[in-house]
Specification:
Shape: globular
Number of domains: 3
CATH architecture of the largest domain: 3-Layer(aba) Sandwich
Structural class: alpha/beta
Order of helices and strands: EHEEHHEHEHHEEEEHEEHHHHHEHEHE
Radius of gyration: 21 Å
Mean pLDDT: 94
Largest sheet: 6 strands, mixed
CATH class of the largest domain: Alpha Beta
Distance between the termini: 25 Å
Number of strands: 14
Low-confidence stretches: none
CATH superfamily of the largest domain: AICAR transformylase, duplication domain
Strand content: 15-25%
């Protein structure tokens, strides 16, 4: 397998030995492309096995921007889909995954757990992305995808029969470290409620999806999941509470994009679908820069932003969200922040010195607390 370059264009790179878990159908990967693709393939393969449904992920810089299994599209996600019949399972999974954070998914690496069909290939023709990895491609779909980006779109076919070695190595500053591959099973047996009652079946399915997603997300990481799709994933934070605050903010943006004032924002003359989505996301963020505010006024004269009260009222309507954490929650303030975004189920490894305080906070906010005993750090 030939590599375009390493982590950066000034770094040369090559693949050493061993059976490859995927083959290049079209394009030339960089190291980042390859890392993102193989991370995404592991994630969707495991998510499909854990949930019994086809899965898709949108990967950016080694972590998922969004993960989802097949399911219905709400009116906001449907705006990216052409009118008419509902999309098939695989296409719906990717639309739902990308909808979690379309700003971050711009130029993503796509991973899907089933062979690419004609419908998904047609949809991806209009999506800004760097590449895709899948276990196969129906006739004509690989060629159609390979034509994207003036022929530089990366198309990788995963080898479903590939079995990784039991150990994995990492070279750090000339030191080679080997550890056992993280292959602890993620099953319903991990989901042990310790406070707040039992875990509903829908929340259990969301918990499994979240756990699989976080296994392949840079730590510290947290996911908010609802209805078989991530609303937000926060990755790479140095402390847990900032990770949760970031995830809550991203989920708030996801939900506010569904407010009628924001969802019905028209496209200005000559505006692309992506540019309209960018403006909807900026409005949902609620933090326009002075330059953006002036440009918004020019594009939409007389249009008003949502008031703080309107935002708060809309956020109060979100519920049944499952929070999944890759490490233990150390303080009750993690739960207090989670309560602002409709979290009703909390899934964490447990083990904090203040575990009793965390459990008490969950009871105070009417949340079910589940402890798995399984930490899922990734570095």
């Amino acid at each position: 397998m030939q590599l375009r370059y390493g982590m950066n264009p000034h770094q040369q790179a090559r693949v050493l030995g061993r059976q490859a878990p995927a083959r290049v159908v079209s394009g030339t990967p960089s190291v980042i492309n390859l890392v993102d693709a193989l991370t995404g393939w592991q994630l969707v393969r495991e998510a499909a096995a854990a949930t019994g449904s086809v899965a898709a992920a949108s990967i950016k810089h080694t972590s998922p921007a969004g993960v989802a299994v097949a399911g219905p599209l709400d009116s906001t996600a449907r705006e990216t889909w052409s009118p008419g019949a509902d999309p098939g399972a695989l296409t719906s999974a990717y639309i739902r995954a990308r909808d979690a954070d379309p700003k971050s998914s711009f130029g993503d690496m796509i991973a899907v757990s089933a062979p690419v069909d004609a419908e998904l290939a047609a949809f991806l023709a209009g999506v800004v992305s760097d590449g895709i990895i899948a276990p196969g491609f129906e006739p004509g779909t690989a060629e159609r995808l390979a034509a994207k980006k003036r022929g530089t779109f990366l198309v990788l076919e995963a080898d479903e029969s590939y079995q990784p070695p039991a150990g994995e190595q990492r070279d750090i500053f000339g030191l080679v470290v080997e550890q056992q591959r993280d292959n602890a099973p993620i099953t319903h047996g991990l989901l042990r409620p310790v406070a707040g009652g039992s875990l509903p079946p829908e929340a259990a399915a969301d918990a499994l999806l979240g756990l699989v997603a976080l296994r392949y997300t840079q730590s510290n990481s947290v996911a908010l999941v609802r209805g078989g799709a991530t609303l937000a994933v926060a990755a790479g934070q140095q402390n847990r509470v900032d990770c949760i605050r970031l995830c809550v903010a991203k989920a708030a943006t996801w939900w506010l994009r569904r407010h009628p004032v924001i969802r019905e924002l028209p496209a200005a003359a000559g505006m692309t679908r992506q540019d309209r989505l960018n403006w909807q996301t900026r409005l949902a963020d609620g933090d326009l820069t002075p330059g953006q505010a002036a440009e918004f006024s020019r594009l939409y004269p007389g249009a008003a932003d949502l008031s703080l009260a309107a935002r708060a009222d809309w956020l109060d309507e979100l519920s049944d969200v499952t929070l999944v954490s890759d490490g233990y929650l150390p303080f009750r303030d993690n739960i207090e922040h989670a309560s602002r975004i409709g979290v009703r189920h909390v899934v964490e490894p447990g083990g904090s010195n203040r575990s009793d305080e965390v459990a008490a906070a969950c009871r105070d906010y009417g949340m079910v607390l589940v402890r798995t005993g399984l930490r899922l750090f990734r570095h």
